[in-house]
Amino acid sequence: MLDISFEINGWKVHPDQIGNELEKAVFRQVRDDLVRKVGSIQDPETGRPPKITVKGRNLKNLSFEVQGSER
């Protein structure tokens, strides 16, 4: 399973705990799109998926940090 986490203003949050309903829907869509697009990627040696952290101050300012598995 793909490991996706969200950090807003330095705080880890779950998409269901984010602000208003529109923001929740956007973050859920980001999560679902990541799973759909890269969910099947695995390290060929360990079989582990990448860890993805979505960070930002708000919806207009998001960055994606991708980490491979440690060997």
Report what the structure shows.
This protein is α+β, with helices and mostly antiparallel strands and 71 residues long. The protein has one domain (3-67). The protein contains 1 helix and 4 strands; from the N terminus they run ββαββ. It has one helix at 21-38, and strands spanning 3-8, 11-13, 51-58, 61-67. It has a 4-stranded mixed β-sheet, with no helix packed on it.
Alpha carbon gyration radius: 13 Å
Structural class: alpha+beta
Mean pLDDT, to the nearest integer, reads 86
Low-pLDDT parts are none
Outline: elongated
Distance between the termini: 18 Å
What proportion strand?
25-35%
State the helix count.
1
Order of SSEs, N→C? Answer: EEHEE
Largest sheet: 4 strands, mixed
- Percent range of helical residues: 25-40%
- Domains counted in the coordinates: how many? 1
Strands ordered across the widest β-sheet: 2-1-3-4
Count of β-strands: 4
Q: Can you give keywords for this protein?
A:
34% strand, alpha+beta, 25% helix, 71 residues, 1 helix
Please give the structural blueprint.
Blueprint: E1 3-8, E2 11-13, H1 21-38, E3 51-58, E4 61-67
Parallel strand pairs: 1-3
Antiparallel strand pairs: 1-2, 3-4
Summed up:
This protein is α+β, with helices and mostly antiparallel strands and 71 residues long. Helix content is 25%, strand content 34%. It has one domain (3-67).
